[in-house]
Specification:
321 residues, alpha/beta, 8-stranded mixed sheet, flat, Protease-4
Length: 321
Amino acid sequence: MAFDMDHLVERRKLRRKLSVWRIVAVLALIILVAAASLNFVVDEDSLSHKKSHIAKIVFSGTIIGQERKLKLIRQLEKNDSVKGVIVSINSPGGATSGGEAIYNALKQLGEKKPVVASMDALAASAGYIIALPAERIFARRTSITGSIGVLFQYTDLTGLMDTVGVKMRSIKSAPLKAEPNPFSGQNPEAEAMIAKMIDDSFQWFVDLVAENRPFDRQRALELADGRIVTGGQAVDLQLVDELGGPEEAKNWLIQNHNLDSNLQLIEWKPEPITESFPFGFASKIAASLLPQPIIDLFDQRNTAVQLDGLVSVWQAQKNEQ
């Protein structure tokens, strides 16, 4: 009887051990499959980038810092397989400093490889800034572009504070510290200070237009009244060179730089947000098992930055009746 009990206990222990090892084996298999899938995707992208091709980089939405896109531009510059670059733009603009950073990166890229720009529905203000380094600018006839200028906005909450009976007091080292302030109302000295900042950035914007377009600075100033125009109007104003899209831009590159007509147009995308996860390869494997909506949440959290400071952006505003 004792022998039977001992035998039963040993069998139960063996079963538990087998169950544990089965779980470990399944987990190991899942990790191997995930790692193989991850390597396949990486290798696939790597192989496509090793063949001679024309690269396309897309700027869509509000322009802020976009460090991942700046890194991508540097990679394009160093890749010998990239024979030309099409900058595709669909943006209302954004932070003036963000437009400046992308402009400088594309200008440097253009010293090594031919660069053309293709405007989609919208390429206004800072969206127009990032088109300027291109050797040739294409736009759809109905694209919206222009809006050359700089903007600074702040809110005056003094009326609301008076209504609710709240006062804001502050002790400052100097009168212009933390001005303009939404809690202290209109301050002529602060507004004069901001106006000088805006004018400095505006003159820089006008200089970029005059430097990169086929007319002088006086003409650039005339066009820098904040107006928006269609792609068709922009061609007449010489803000844009030609009507067309990415295919027309590709054909222009091939014809004007003696490139192989069989070159593929391949979109380059920034590294996935999962590349910035901590814990290296282990996190990449874990991320490959997560559903895409969860990855998107990480991406949105990483890029959700308040648009503040000097901005070069076009915004459709409600008409006052």
